[in-house]
Amino acid sequence: MKNNNTEDMHSRWHDMGGKPAGKLEFSEHDFELWEKRVDALMVLASSKGYFTVDGLRRVLEDMGEKAFSEMTYYERWMASINQNLVEAGAYTLQELGEKMAEVANRGLTYGECNAQEIEENMNES
Amino acid sequence: MPHDHNNEMSPSGHPYRKDQDHPLTYWQNLEIAVREILVEKKITTEIEIQETINEMDNRTPSNGATVIAKAWTDPSYKQRLLTNASDASRELGFDIGPLKLIALENTKSIHNVIVCTLCSCYPRNLLGLPPDWYKQRSYRSRIVKTPRTVLKEFGLDLPKDLSVRVHDSTADMRYIVLPMRPHGTENFSTQALEKLVTRDSMIGVGLPKSA
Amino acid sequence: MKVKVKKMFPPGHVRTPSYLRGKIGEVERDLGYFKNPEELAYGLNAHKQKLYRVRFEMNEIWGETCENPSDTVDAEIYEHWLEKV
């Protein structure tokens, strides 16, 4: 059981220093293209002044511990980047909802849903 | 330290994993949608996104190894590195953006190790993206409380008379460890020295390879 | 300069780890002024705050049963979280 003191009751889940945890797991993986794109969106959105890494972290923290265990790193980033962009007025939820539906209708896999756009670009040029 | 001795590594120091060909996930759907909206609104372009990915892919532990090997062979460079590691990295041609970097020198009496207990801050603009374990609870929770136990899991058993300095990247600085030059490398070229510098030795969870 | 980290627990985005709150350390270096992340995180016009690197001894943080008393933790702490000892 936790101590009934202020630290334990009010330190937030992401604030992990000193809290109990198991042994290290050394599995590593390289990043998929879509994950690299998420990373790039963060770099670009912050360099263009839409929000800062602090905003990214704030939303990640507010998503809670459940998201930390159930979503992958870049899934959480994507959710946070989107929320920050909406808050900054970059686009509306209506625009986003319509675009997401359009993307999902293009095919079954990530590759297929991107492929159409690459095809369009080729037809235009 | 199995993660440093795997031959199947990408330039960023991670094992390769093939791109997904399974059903589109909700978050991938969101990524495509947000990216296309930002392009349509001329906030960014597909080319700019690809260039940003390329820039990040070019940031790898070998950039850090170049910095470390230079510091091992050039005392005045080492002084500049310890004074301002951002400028010293730029001096060697590395585009590290706005990164504010501090180099921490390992000595016979001090061993440095870096962490971010609050999220996953890492000297990514020099070394590339962090390894998975750096972002996980086990490392973030325990390295500030029982660093010696954690370092043992990395295969590093430090003597009691060596002080461990843990550096928690809580705000605007990022850190890189300047490990000690391995014994028996007096006649090594800078290029040969670079090959001894591992990613883990620059995080402080490993040592350079021996000569 | 000896400093003590304020022991406060506001809900919301802060960059002072809870394991250091209430602990006494020694300023290692003055890093200059940086925009306050507690304002930046909410998209506000952030004020600049002085940032310090503070060094804490393991037994100060974790007590006498710490792993090794000669080991230390350094962290960056904003001025508004610090009080002089």
The biggest beta sheet of chain A reads: none
Give a count of the beta strands of chain A, DSSP E runs of length 2 or more. 0
What is Rg of chain B?
19 Å
Estimated structural class of chain A: mainly alpha
CATH homologous superfamily of the largest domain in chain B, by name?
Nitrile hydratase alpha /Thiocyanate hydrolase gamma
Beta-strand content estimate of chain A: under 5%
Care to count the β-strands of chain B?
A: 4
Q: List unreliable stretches of 5+ residues of chain B.
A: 1-7
CATH class of the largest domain in chain A: Mainly Alpha
Largest sheet of chain B, in brief, is: 2 strands, parallel
Q: Strand share of the residues of chain B?
A: 5-15%
The low-confidence runs of chain A, each spanning 5 or more residues with pLDDT under 50, are: 1-5
Question: How are the strands ordered across the major sheet of chain B?
Answer: 1-4
**CATH class identity of the largest domain in chain B:** Alpha Beta
Q: Please, how many helices of chain B?
A: 11
- What is the string of SSEs of chain A from the N terminus onward? HHHHHH
- Gross morphology of chain B: globular
The domain count of chain A comes to 2
Query: How widely separated are the two ends of chain B?
Result: 17 Å
What is the straight-line distance between the termini of chain A?
65 Å
Largest interface: A-B, 62 and 60 residues
Question: Can you summarize this structure?
Answer:
The complex is a heterotrimer of chains A (125), B (211) and C (85). Chain A is mainly alpha-helical.
What does this structure look like?
The complex is a heterotrimer of chains A (125), B (211) and C (85). Chain A is an all-alpha fold. Helices cover 64% and strands 0% of the residues of chain A. In chain A, helix 2 (33-47) runs parallel beside helix 4 and helix 3 (53-70) crosses helix 4. In chain A, 32% of the residues are buried. Chain B has two domains: 25-57, no CATH class; 61-203, Alpha-Beta Complex (Nitrile Hydratase, Chain A), CATH 3.90.330.10. Helix content of chain B is 41%, strand content 10%. Chain B has a two-stranded parallel ribbon. A two-stranded parallel ribbon of chain B has the order 2-3. Chain B is globular, with a radius of gyration of 19 Å. The two termini of chain B are 17 Å apart. The relative contact order of chain B is 0.17. Chain C is mainly beta and 85 residues long. Chain C contains two helices and five strands. Chain C has helices spanning 37-40, 58-62; strands spanning 2-5, 24-35, 48-57, 72-78, 82-84. Chain C has a five-stranded antiparallel sheet with strand order 4-3-2-1-5. The model of chain C has no long low-confidence stretch (mean pLDDT 97). The B-C interface holds B 117-118, 144-149, 160, 163-173 and C 15-17, 19, 31, 34, 37, 51, 53, 55, 61-62, 66-68, 70-78. Strand 3 (163-168) of chain B pairs parallel with strand 4 of chain C.
